Amino acid sequence: MERTTAFFADQVSLDQVVQNLIYASGTVGALMVVAGLLMIDAGTTRSANLYNSTIEKMVGFFVGFATYFVLGFGFWASQYYIMAGGTMMDSLKDWWFFGVLSNSHAQNVDPAIFPGVNTFQIFIFFLATFAGIINVLLHFAVSERMKASAYYVTCVVATAVSSVLSWAVWGSVGPLTNAGFHDFFGIGFVYIFPTGIALVLVPQLGKRPGMFAPHPKVQVYRAPSIGLAATGLITIFSGLPMVILSCLFFVAPGAYAISVTMADTSLGIALNNYALSWAGGAIMGALISYRTKNYIYLLFGPLAGYVSGAPGFDVYLPWQMFLVSLGAPIASWLVYDFTSKREIDEHKLFPLFIGAGLYALVMVGLLKGGTPHGGYWGIEEGPYAYQHGAISLLMQLVGFALCLGTGIVTGLVLTVILKATTGLRVPEEEQAEGLDKLRWNLDNDGEQPEVQTDVYVASESVAFPAKAS
C-alpha cells in the first residue's frame, strides 16, 4: 500500500523518544502529587464530610484537566509563537482541542514547520495536570462550605485565567520572565493565584462548625488521620523530582540541561536543591512543633521548605537552598498564627503560599539578583536573545502581586456571579449534619447505612413480608 502522507523521521528519532519519556515522567510525578493531596485531605477533613470533600476535589481536578485540553495550552505556548513573529491567536488555533498540531501525528508534521511535536503534545497532559492541581488546592480553602455547582464553575474559570497567567510568568520568553521575574517551578500561577481566589471566597463562606467554637452538632472539629496526611506528604515528596525533569530543556551537546527560564543549571544541582529544601523545612518545622506543641508545623515545615525553593531550584547552590529553607516554616508560622488568632478558617493556602510563597520569591531576588536568564537557546540578539535578561528583586515582587492580584480579581468577579446564580455557601446546619449523609446517604465512617426494606415473597397463594438480608 502506497504511503500518502509525508513521513518525517526526525520527529520520531531516538533522541526525540528519550526526551518524550523524560517529559512523560514529569506527568507521572504530577499525578503522584494529586494522590498525595487527596491523602492529605482524607487525613484532615472531618469524617462526616470526607467522601463529599474527596469526590469534589476529584471532579474539580478533571474539570480543570479537560478545560485545559480545550483551550489552556495555546495560551502558554503562545510566548514562543510571539517570539517567532506569530500571535497568541495563531497558537490557540494550532493547540486548542480541535487544533491542527494538537491532533497531528508527530511523524507527519514537517519539523521545519514545528519541531518536537510529541514533546509539546505531552506538555498538554503535563500542564493540564497542574491545571487540575490548582483546583484541588483551591478546594482545600473552601472544602465543606462551598456549593459543588459554584465550585465547578470556579474550576472552569480558574483554569482559563491561570492559563493566560502562565503565559506571562512561566517559561523563558513570557513578558514577566523576559523582564526579570524568575519562577522555575511555576508557584506564581499554580500556588499563589488560587490563594488570591481563596482570599475572596473564605470570608464569604465563613467558619466551619466546631472549628473555633463548639456547635450543637459538632463540639470540636477533628482530623480523622494525621498519619494518612503524613503519608500524603511523602507521596508528594516522591513525585516532584520527576516534575523537575519537565522544567528543564535538554539541548546539544549531549543532554546539556538548562532551566525552563533559560538559567544555567544542572540536573544534579536542581534535584539536590529540591531534596535539601524539604530537609531544611522539615527540621525547622519540627523545632516549631516541639516548641509550640502543635503537630501542624511538622506537616507545614517540609511543604514550606519546598515552596521556598521552588522558584529557584535551578539557580541556588545546595548550601544556599538549605539555609533559605530553614526560614520558610517561620514565614508560614507567622501567617498561620495571624489567621488562627483572628479565627480565619483557612489553614493551608494562606500560610504556605502567602507566607512561604512571598518569602520564596523575595529570597530568589535577594540572593540571585542579576543572574542571567530569559530569552531562548540559540538566539543571539534582539529582545529574545538567550540569557539577555537578569533576575530582579523588583520583578519578583511584581510577579507576586500580579499572581495574587489576578486571583483576587477572579474571586471578586466569581463571587458576584455565583451569588446571583448557583449560590455560594452550603448552609451551616447542613455542614454540621454532614454532607456525606445528606448528599450521598453515607454514615460518618463512609459506609452506606443498612436500609430496612419490606420485601414481599410469594408462597403459592399467600404473600408475607420478610426483612431483606
UniProtKB/TrEMBL annotation:
The keyword Transcription does not apply. One of its GO terms (cellular component) is membrane. InterPro entries: Ammonium/urea_transptr, NH4_transpt_AmtB-like_dom. The chain crosses the membrane at residues 20-40, 61-82, 120-138, 150-172, 184-205, 226-251, 271-288, 295-313, 319-338, 350-370, 390-418. GO terms for biological process: ammonium homeostasis. It is a multi-pass membrane protein. Keywords: Ammonia transport, Membrane, Transmembrane, Transmembrane helix, Transport. This is Ammonia channel protein AmtB. It comes from Paracoccus sulfuroxidans.
